[in-house]
Design goal:
The protein is an alpha/beta fold and 343 residues long. Helices cover 19% and strands 34% of the residues. It binds FE2/S2 (inorganic) cluster.
Length: 343
């Protein structure tokens, strides 16, 4: 089998290199050398691992055109989880060097402690890590995710964590049930005491230290989950930066974690919250309309300091917020986002 040299230039002009065989995708090859590049779904559907090939030949496996439109493919953009080299490659990544982690991804076993329905179509899953030689602590950064192996198969699904690092080893997830989805099907009959294999933490959608810039969090559906983790971290650390949360859903019965958000507001009184329903009932007293419209109203009112935007939701939501933010003069560097995935 032929091996090729892969070189990635980051946005801040640093360089990372590794070796990849013709049969391996770039993301997996980097991981084998303990180089963790930004990624999420690992199946060509989220767009988190996008980069641009500037030299060399490659084969692109099956990708979603939502994650990588045909015009982007034509200019050399690739999804690294679906890219197989056919020569030495040079790529440009759309992120800085400090978004890359250099470590082995931990794999652990965890026990199901609780599975409950918390809103229409959404379940809360609480896992507890089994103690190993590292102990039983759950250590991760607010906003990161874990991959959970679907019982009885090799498939893994990525889910964001809603809680924060803790000594108990607790990992809290809120998962949207997808009809026929592999992990959703398992969740329908999951039992307390089941053991699951998990891998992580992973992901670079985490809080940035940007001085006193306000933080605005925008989440659609279970896109709220990593934002909840970030807000809980701010609450635990007593971070009094100006902050806003925009949480969008279609119907009121799809909203979840309302009590948890109120508890965060008790600790972060500066946090302004807008619950946005695109199909509200007559009695709905908060924002009536899409989360993007709510954000547009607030971004267009004069702001003395530009906020950092943390966005998590569907591809449509992320794209809509990105276009809106850029049209309102927010620089790229103010935007952090993660797309919500079906599973
Ligand atoms: S990680 Fe490659 S497209 Fe999602």
């Amino acid at each position: 089998m032929t091996n090729y040299d892969i070189t990635i230039h980051t946005r801040d002009r640093q360089r990372v290199s590794f070796v990849c065989s013709e049969a391996e995708d770039l993301l997996s090859a980097a991981e084998r050398e303990n180089i963790l590049l930004p990624s999420q779904c690992r199946k060509g559907t989220c767009g988190a691992c996008v980069a641009t090939v500037t030299a060399g030949a490659y084969r692109l496996g099956e990708v979603s055109t939502e994650a990588l439109p045909e015009n982007a493919q034509a200019r050399g953009d690739v999804l690294m989880c679906r890219t197989y080299p056919q020569a030495d490659l040079i790529l440009e990544a759309p992120y800085d060097y400090d978004y890359i982690r250099f470590e082995r991804i931990p794999e652990r076993e965890a026990e199901v402690i609780e599975v409950t329905m918390v809103a229409t179509g959404t379940r809360r899953l609480l896992l507890r890590l089994q103690p190993d030689e590292q102990g039983g602590t759950a250590e991760f950064e607010a906003g990161q995710f874990m991959e959970i192996q679907v019982p009885g198969s090799d498939a893994r699904r990525a889910y964001s964590l809603a809680n924060n690092t803790n000594w108990n080893g607790d990992l809290e997830f809120f998962i949207t049930l997808r009809p026929g989805g592999a992990f959703s099907t398992y969740l329908e009959s999951a039992l307390v005491g089941d053991r699951l294999n998990i891998r992580g933490p992973l992901g670079t959608f985490t809080l940035r230290e940007n001085g006193l810039r306000p933080r605005w969090f925008v989440g659609g559906g279970t896109g709220l989950v990593p934002l909840l983790s970030m807000l809980r971290r701010m609450a635990d650390w007593g971070e009094m930066l100006p902050a806003r949360l925009y949480f969008g859903a279609r119907y009121e019965d799809e909203l979840f974690c309302q009590e948890e958000i109120r508890q965060i507001q008790d600790k972060l009184p500066q946090l302004q919250v807008k619950m946005c329903l695109s199909r509200p009932g007559n009695q709905w007293a908060d924002y009536r309309g899409s989360v993007i419209n709510a954000l547009r109203d607030d971004l267009s009112s004069s702001l003395s300091v530009l906020p950092d935007l943390y966005v998590c939701g569907s591809t449509r939501l992320v794209q809509g917020v990105t276009e809106l933010a850029l049209s309102q003069g927010l620089p790229d560097s103010c935007l952090q986002f993660e797309r919500f995935l079906s599973a």
